[in-house]
Amino acid sequence: LQGKGIGTALINHCKQHYNRLTLSVYTQNEQAVQFYKNAGFHIVREQEGDCKPHTVYLMRWVSSEKTAKPS
Length: 71
What we know:
By secondary structure, this protein is of the alpha+beta class. Helix content is 30%, strand content 31%. Strands 1-3-2 form a three-stranded antiparallel β-sheet, covered by helices on one side. β2 (42-48) and β3 (55-62) form a beta hairpin. The radius of gyration is 13 Å and the shape is globular. The termini are far apart.
């Protein structure tokens, strides 16, 4: 179902309700990393994942507006 706008719609819905979103994504999943970057997330840090030896990026989006509901 990639490329149908579903993920973007879900992210945008969450952004309407929270001032900050945090997630983790496998560093090797370049397509997902780029998707989240395009959605305004930035990499906070790289850390060991639950499934060794894989590492994950901790990514965060912070609202630049005060219209979102407090989280």
